[in-house]
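Lab notebook, bench 4. Still working through the backlog of constructs that have no structural model yet. Next entry is a single chain of 398 residues. Request: give me the structure tokens for it.
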Amino acid sequence: MDAFYASVEARDNPGLRGKPLIIGSMPYERGVVSTCSYEARKYGVRSAMNIKEAYRLCPDGIYMHPNFDKYKAVSERLHEIWGSYATVSETIALDEAFLDVTETAGTFERAREMAKEIKSRTRSELGLSCSVGLAYSKSAAKTASEEKKPDGYFEILTPKDFTDLLIDRDVRALFTVGARTAEKLHGAGIDTVRDLLGREDDVVALLGRQGRMLVQLARGIDDRKVTPYRPEDAKSVSREITFQEDVHDYRLLEDVLLLMSMSVAERARRHNLRGGGVVLKVTYSDMKSITRSRATMRCDDALSIHREAVEMLSSLSRRGVRLIGVGIYNLSKGRSRQTTIEEAVSIFRTDEGRRLEEALAEMSGRYGIDFSANTDGVRRIDALHSLVEDMRIRRVYG
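Model written out:
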């Protein structure tokens, strides 16, 4: 999709069309740009940019918080349209997917027609534009989809076409080359794809297995299959919160960790996943980040996740905290629950629910918020941010 969040907002509010629209945090808040309209990009604003830098570049822009429920609803309809053309669809994000049309199209000619239909239906049924790339491989299709944005179409039909297109571009044009990898390559004097192909041995010596993959990609070779996303394939489930002001109150941090642990447990339970360890992330006011992890036999409920996270937090130095996060890793499918096992789990969950209610009741007394009734604040990340900020203000100012 083209500037997805911003495009949805402009579709629903015509007064926003043609304006520099920035979706993310407010300029006076801590946070980043989630996405922005193409009008805002003309000022140099881009996704993941610090919101204060975005405001410096575009002080007259229109700033909005994201509405994830709205975007998810639109996304579901998008993927229904797109998926109807493919034998296999691999969802990359709310607004992006790989579609394998090898069997449904059969020829590039029919695939071109499908691309036009996808663009037409996306616009007519949802009032939004998308950019489509047609190619022989995943990396080439991704490159093609970016080539003529917004509302574009481009095709790369052979490995030679792919290499010819990118040969004199920066190495960041290749899949998996982010800022750090690019910095390593540039430091070695490998700036372009042409440089990379001319110094293959140096690339492999510098980056190892990733270097070998980059050499193959630069040659246009990419045999990765389009694979449907499965929640159990995720490596971790996590949540993190950036506070609007540094937090020195570790009682507040522990309470925030409980809410985030509930969110993580709810997401894992929704997909019948359980974790083999808990991870804690803390970023201090000086931007130094510390990550701690701990393997555990069982961490698929909120209280277990919270207990491990709090113990790890207690071992860290007590300084002002800018960001805190918690998650579970080493994911696996939950055990089957039948007969006596099902009964045992049911009894445990009843006990867990009671203890969780008691913990939330204590928190309600501290903050004057009915946490038991505020389940929306745990389910939705934007609501969770608002709830935590309310807690912080009440704790600081009473």
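Notes after review: The chain has 17 helices and 13 strands. The mean pLDDT is 90. Flag for follow-up if needed.
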